[in-house]
Amino acid sequence: MVTFALCVAESITVPEGDPSITVLLKVLRENHPRFKETVAFSDEARRMIMSMSTALDALNTIRNHASLAHANEALLGDPEAHLAIDSARTVFRYVDAKVA
User: Fold this and answer.
1) Kind and range of the H or E element at 30?
2) What is the CA radius of gyration of the chain?
3) Tens digit of each residue's pLDDT (9 = 90 or more) over 36-87
4) pLDDT class of 28 with cuts at 50, 70, 90
5) Which end of the chain is less crowded, N or C, counting CB atoms within 10 A of the terminal residue's CB?
6) In the chain, what is the straight-line distance between the N-terminal and C-terminal CA atoms, in Å?
7) Taking Cα atoms as reference points, which of 78, 84, 77, 80 lies closest to residue 56?
8) Nearest Cα to 88, choosing from 51, 50, 59, 48?
9) How far apart are CA 67 and CA 60, in angstroms?
10) What is the pLDDT of residue 79?
């Protein structure tokens, strides 16, 4: 997982067990030096990324129970699948841009 690897690379302690993407993004945002930079509307930006990470948390269930990643009878519809994929891409593109 990208967020986990970034935490390890910066020696940021992550919760034990199997932390969710929401937890990892919060830890990364609160502890990675690049996320500590002050930007205009930083509170709003923080709220956006945390809201989107919550949405990504739902993506794990979808991946396991409504996609071709595992044998599933019921699959997500095309519009919802595009929404899930685009949401994940947006969050990870943001994280990549911040730490670059």
Assistant:
1) helix 21-31
2) 15
3) 887 888 888 888 888 888 888 888 888 888 888 888 888 888 998 899 889 8
4) confident
5) C
6) 17
7) 84
8) 59
9) 10
10) 93
Task: From residue 93, give the alpha-carbon distance in Å to each of 28, 49, 66, 67.
Answer: 15, 11, 24, 22
Can you give the pLDDT at residue 86? 92
Owner of token pair 């949405």: 55
Q: What amino acid occupies position 49?
A: I
Question: Taking the mean position of all CA atoms in its chain, how far away is CA 5?
Answer: 13
**Residue 69 near residue 63, CB atoms below 8 Å:** yes
Q: Is residue 95 within 8 Å of 7, Cβ to Cβ?
A: no
40: DSSP letter: T
